[in-house]
Amino acid sequence: LARLDSAGVLATGVDSEPTEVVTAAGDTVAVLGFSTSGGDAPDARDLAAVRRYVSAAAARYRRVIVTVHIGAEGAAAQRVRDSVEHYYGGSRGNPVAFARAATEAGADLVIGHGPHVVRALEWRGHSLVAYSLGNLLTYGPFQLRDPMNRGAVLCATLAGDGSPRSVALRPTRQRRPGRDRKSTRLNSSH
Fold first, then answer.
1. What are the distances in angstroms from CA 13 to CA 40, 55, 166, 169?
2. Peptide bond preceding 147: is omega within 30 degrees of 0, i.e. cis?
3. Integer angstrom CA distances of residue 92 from 41, 131, 174
4. Which residues on adjacent β-strands are paired with residue 173?
5. pTM of the entire structure?
6. Cβ-based neighbours of 153, under 8 Å, separated by 6 or more
7. CA–CA separation, 55 vs 179, rounded Å?
8. How far apart are CA 23 and CA 121, in angstroms?
């Protein structure tokens, strides 16, 4: 955390307080992080706490983004179900119940990660939920073949009331380290 801070990188999810992100326009966005990994991070499986923390942030800020490390992992975890998911025998929470709790408490955007595959996006009222954006950059022993090498970048503007607007999903593909890749330019009109 100290290294991220010294590099000017904001971190969230180390406690129940939202991380304040000030935009170039001077607006403030609250970002809350949750996990199922234990430690001091707010636990995504404790839905009463999720509601409390998100409600408190929504009462203080017009725009609230929630990020969560939740759910089963791997190629078999591409589908999202409204049930508790497991990985290596441990509970990794219920992504749908988490999204419901967070959006009903005031989250405008919920971004999930953890499964290492792209999962569904869903509108919940004016809120947008991305259950997993897959991998952008990884390290170590990850298998980088379909679908584990696929990911997405979610681009959205949060309106004055916090609702996501101008939403675009940009595909990514991760290559093995050390492999050359021709540069691909994304068309900004898509």
1. 8, 16, 27, 24
2. yes
3. 14, 13, 25
4. 150
5. 0.88
6. 133, 136, 169, 170, 172
7. 46
8. 25
Is 54 within 8 Å of 31 (Cβ atoms)? no
Cβ atoms of 77 and 115 within 8 Å: the answer is: yes
Which residue in the block uniquely carries the two structure tokens 């503007």? 157
pLDDT score recorded for residue 171:
92
Contact residues for 110 (Cβ-Cβ < 8 A; gap 6+): 65, 66, 67, 68, 98, 99, 102, 103, 127, 128, 129, 130
Query: What six digits make up the tokens of 143?
Result: 């298998």
- pLDDT single digits (tens) 54-84: 999 999 999 999 999 999 998 999 999 999 9
- Joined together, the tokens standing for residue 160 give 């004055």
How far is the C-alpha of 169 from the C-alpha of 101, rounded, in Å? 24
Q: How many CB atoms lie within 10 A of CB 48?
A: 8
Residues 117-149: b if buried by 16+ CB within 10 A, e if exposed: bbbebeeeeebbbbbbbbbeebeeeeeeeeebb
For residue 50, what are the contacts with CB-CB under 8 A and spacing of at least 6? 34, 42, 44, 98, 101, 102, 105
